[in-house]
Design goal:
Blueprint: E1 7-11, H1 18-30, E2 34-39, E3 45-47, E4 53-55, E5 58-59, E6 70-73, H2 78-82, H3 86-97, E7 102-105, H4 109-114, E8 122-123, H5 130-135, E9 139-140, E10 145-148, E11 151-154, H6 160-172
Parallel strand pairs: 1-2, 1-6, 2-5, 6-7, 7-11, 8-9
Antiparallel strand pairs: 3-4, 10-11
């Protein structure tokens, strides 16, 4: 399995988009990766927009980003909450500075906007935050998945197969794009 020994961190908070968390987590685990879920409080149960629960294994403050190979940011309404935590922003900036893969889908772009890491990047997201992404300095593309170096972005749940494959490719070092 090509992601053996890879550690991936995923943020969670209430009202995450259920498929945008669970589909990537399960697919990455199938590839051999270990995925840790971090929320505001360790042990807290967070419910997705459609009621699927997830329990945070760590609090944001417990996370040492240097222990992770990649970061997954699910969409839904959770990103609007996530971007308010200084530690979340610190983790995103660490991953950006060290060019570790960052996967974001749908509204997850709000977290990257707040971390101020999108200037000059090619990205996609739900069309509803296209203006936000462009105002943050990104070039927005209406594509199922956009890979710009270590940043992998996608629009919405129907794009998940393309998104998660591209994200896994980048983590494994198999992506031949930009």
């Amino acid at each position: 399995m090509r992601l053996n020994n890879k550690r991936i961190l995923s943020f969670v908070h209430h009202d995450f988009e259920d498929l945008e968390l669970w589909y990537p987590v399960l697919r990455l685990q199938e590839e051999g990766a270990s995925v840790d879920l971090a929320g505001e409080k360790a042990g807290e149960v967070y419910k997705g927009k459609y009621g699927v629960p997830v329990t945070a294994q760590l609090s944001f403050d417990d996370v040492d980003p240097s222990n992770y190979d990649a970061l997954l940011v699910p969409g839904g309404w959770a990103p609007d909450k996530l971007r308010r935590f200084p530690k979340v922003i610190e983790i995103v900036r660490h991953m950006e500075e060290h060019k570790k893969p960052i996967g974001q889908i749908c509204h997850a772009g709000w977290v990257l906007i707040s971390a101020k890491i999108l200037e000059g990047k090619k990205v996609t997201s739900t069309p509803g935050i296209k203006d936000d992404m462009e105002n943050a300095g990104a070039e927005w593309l209406d594509e199922a998945v956009v890979v710009d170096g270590h940043l992998v972005s996608s629009r919405r749940p129907p794009d998940l197969p393309h998104y998660v494959k591209a994200f896994a490719d980048v983590i494994a070092g198999d992506h031949k794009g930009q």
